[in-house]
Every structure is written in structure tokens, then in C-alpha cells.
Amino acid sequence: MEHIVIIGNGISGITTARHIRKLSDKKITIISAESDFFFSRTALMYVYMGHMKFEHTQPYENWFWKKNNINLKNGFVENVNTQAKEITFSNGEKMNFDKLIIATGSKPNKFGWPGQDLKAVMGMYHKQDLESIEKYAPNNKECKRAVIVGGGLIGIELAEMLRSRNIPVTFLVRERSFWNAVLPAGESSMINRHIKEHHIDLRLNCNLKEILSDENGKARAIVIAETGEEIPCDLVGLTAGVSPNISFLKDSGIELGRGVKVNRFLETNFPDIYAIGDCAEQHEPIGQRRPIEAVWYTGRMMGETVAQTICGNKIEYKPGYWFNSAKFLDIEYQTYGWVWAQPKENEARFYWEHKDGKKCIHINYDKNTREFIGINTFGIRLRHEFFDKVLSEKRTVDYVLEHLEAANFDPEFFRKHESEIQHSFSNQPETIS
Ligand SMILES: Cc1cc2nc3c(=O)[nH]c(=O)nc-3n(C[C@H](O)[C@H](O)[C@H](O)COP(=O)(O)OP(=O)(O)OC[C@H]3O[C@@H](n4cnc5c(N)ncnc54)[C@H](O)[C@@H]3O)c2cc1C
After folding, report:
1. Interval 103-148: pLDDT, tens
2. Which member of 225, 354, 372, 381 lies 3.0 to 4.6 Å from 359 by CB, making a disulfide possible if both were Cys?
3. Alpha-carbon distance 246 to 289, whole Å?
4. How far is the CA of 86 from the centre of ligand 1 (A)?
5. Ligand 1: does its nearest atom lie under 6 Å from the Cβ of 44?
6. How many A from CA of 394 to the centre of ligand 1?
């Protein structure tokens, strides 16, 4: 019987296994060095915050895998032999495969900072990171201050986690405004303000120079590159982005860029070896998407796609329109289509912010055809299906403004603010960025 081996038990690997099982009775083995059972990485923060136990982050009961005849193997894969179709584990054990799916996810970036490997320095990605955070920041007596390095979605989550235990947080952000490579100025400054309201010591335009050690090899302070300021701390969180977790493949002959290079069928340069999820890099970006997309739903979609291909129905990966969602402390964020940090030449913008400074919408459209291109929404939850339809029907910005009420989960809100939003839209200057 054909043996399908999947390295990685995150959303990508697990989705693949479930779909292959739905479609066939092939032998399936899922390997992970991180945890015995699949858990939701996006829920990890809530374990520290006391909203759930770790077991609650596991979407399936532990018996599910045996019942569905999916083998789980705990181990770290050190080497892939593409000719012999064999993998080797760090303990020397070997395993053969007929088809291999690489779904090894990401790892937190480290940029060679002095002190980056000291004790009490960690990312916020793996289950083991969560355990380290719990160890070094159990409360604000043992952790008198934490420093977070790198302003992005994971950094702000870590700040929220630590603040939930009243631990003072200094947040070093290299950019001059929070996440401004992605967010336009209006949204970015709204989040700057919101971070400060949460009593987080936000330091914009600041890079880490080094992390200083105490006599036991544990971080005791960080130094800011620009000013030389030394900030004493008991924990340093490195959240300056993630990159594909693929160093174990460097001698395998599998083509690598930043990630494992794949085509639209998620195939590598070897037949029967595929890569999916955070660790996969498209040879050619799809539309305006990035070649590597480290988000949950694209991992799931790639898993579904590759399962079809492996079960004889070869299909291309087609991710559809871009969307994403996240939370910045109390403010929910969603984006549909494209709203770049800076408008492109053919684009015009409409930005509306509620007077409470915690809600806004930012619409991007083509200034010649008025076709809707994308929307950012903060503090107002809008319907995915609505924007999928608007984008596929190539509707105009005027249509979207007229139908915002239908897009909203809280029609009351729009009834109250609709005329203000529409009035502000008709009176805006030609382009607001
Ligand atoms: C704190 C946090 C919050 C996030 N929030 C969001 C969000 O709100 N929305 C969103 O879309 N995305 C979010 N993400 C990103 C999302 O979680 C990832 O895109 C997704 O989990 C990637 O899934 P994956 O299956 O590709 O890889 P992973 O989940 O990383 O799984 C890969 C697994 O492979 C294992 N592995 C790696 N190498 C080996 C090896 N050599 N041998 C054995 N096992 C190996 C790893 O240990 C890991 O268990 C968040 C991520 C983090 C860390």
C-alpha cells in the first residue's frame, strides 16, 4: 500500500492527512517534533492568558487519529534522501515513503543579535516557546519587565499576553509607525495610539543592538542600537517576523529559496515530494500575492489541494482573493482584496475613522474605473462572502458604499453612521492615502 509521509502536524499537514483519508485508504504517517497531537497555533496566546487550557487548543480528540487509521510519529527529521525515498530522524531511525509532503511551517527570525540564544530569550511560535514564556514570565514579581523586539502581528499578541499578567512591556519597533510596511498611515497611527493606551512602552524607530547576560547565561537587559539605552528585563521576545523552517533540507537536493520551491501543483523539483503551508515558496507569485504566505487559511487550502493531487485528481492551488484577519489588543482587523501601505498610481483611497479613534474603514479603488480593489476594516466586522462577491463581480467603490450595511454584522452601526460615511466619501479630495 502506498505510504504517504507528512512532516509537520500543523494545519497544513493535518488538513492533507484528513483529506487523503477521506479520499483513500492509503497508509498515512504524520511526523512532528513539537507535539503529539495537532493544536491550533493561533490559540496559544489564550493558554497563557488563562482563557483556555492547552488541551482546548486541540481541535480533535486524541482517539480521532487511531480511529481514522492515521499514524502519528514523534520525532525530528534530520535528512531526506530523495533517491532512496527515505527520511532519517535525529535518533538515527529511518522511514521510507512513496510520497512525501513537507509541511514544516516557520521559525521565528533571529538576525544574529549578540545574546539572542541566552536563557529567557524566545520567539512566540512553538509550544516550547509558550512553555518558556510561562517559565520566565509567570508573574510581575519574577518578570519585572519584558522587552519585545519586532512590531508585527505576533509581537502585539505577545505584548497582550504579558500585559494580561500586568507585566511591564517595552516594545521595540524598527519602523517609524507600527506595521507601516503593511498598514497605511491612518490605521498604523490608530494602532500606535491603542498600544500606548494599554500602557505598553512603545519605542518606534528603535533597533535591538544586543542582549546582555547575567552570570548564569540569562538575559538581564537589552541595549537599543540608536541611543545606547540599556533596559533591564527578565524576558526578551523575538518577534521580528518568521521564515520557513527548512534548514534540515539544505543537503537534500530539494530546490530551496527562502522556502521550499514549488509550482502551482505544490510539487518540488522531485516527483512525489511536495511542500505546503508556511514553508512553501511559489516559483511565481500568484497574482499580487507573496510567494510565501504564512497564514492559517492558505495552509489549509494547500493541504486540501495537495490531497486531491495525491489521490489522483491533480489540481492547481488557487487561493482566490486575498483576505486576512487579526487582533490588535481590543481592535479587530480584517482585510479583503488589496489595500497597500502606499497607494499605487492607478489607485484612490477613502478613509473614514470613527470619532472614538478605535474604528475605521479604508477602501482602495481604481481612480479611473472606480472598481473596488480592497478594504481594511478595524473595529467593525464585515462579511467575507460580501467582499468575495464584490471582487469577483468587479463592483465599484460606489456600489460598496451603498451596500455597506449588507456587509456588516452590526447593521445598527451602519444605520447610525452611514450618512456620515457616505457624506465623507462624497466630500473627500480625489486621493487620500
Ligand atoms: C502566535 C501566532 C499567532 C498567529 N495568528 C494567526 C492569525 O490570527 N491568522 C492567521 O492566518 N495566521 C496566524 N498565525 C500563522 C499561522 O499559525 C501559521 O500560518 C500556520 O500555523 C502554519 O501552519 P503550517 O501547518 O504550515 O506549519 P506549523 O503550524 O508551523 O507546523 C509545522 C510543524 O512541523 C514541525 N516540524 C518542523 N520541522 C520539523 C522536522 N524537521 N521534523 C519534525 N517536525 C518538524 C514543527 O515543529 C511544527 O509542529 C499565527 C502564528 C503564531 C505563531
Report:
1. 999 999 999 999 999 999 999 999 999 999 999 999 999 999 999 9
2. 354
3. 21
4. 24
5. yes
6. 34
